[in-house]
Amino acid sequence: MGELLLALAAEGRLVLDAAQADEAIAGLERTLSEVRARLRIIRMWQCLPAQRVDELPDDLAQDVIEAIFADQLAPGRLELAVVEIPKYIAALQRARETPPAADT
After folding, report:
1. Domain segments of the chain as ranges
2. Mean pLDDT of 45-60
3. pLDDT of 57 higher than 70
């Protein structure tokens, strides 16, 4: 899907006004940050010699549970999201309409 959005933006068939594009880009950047954080948590968890949630602080335990659950529901989707979301961001940046230059 990311490649399709990039192609549409490159062809000028995907165009958004600047405010819409900026809002969507900001949302995607937050999502990408969250996905990366979950992947880091999963990788750290997998490296622990003894994987015991009850030995973790409560806030970290909840993050571990949520990350692992998300990965179990859709294995490999977090990794795919880390590849695809930057393409969406790039497409929206390209599709962002720039206001016409003011006549001087």
Report:
1. 1-8+16-95
2. 86
3. yes
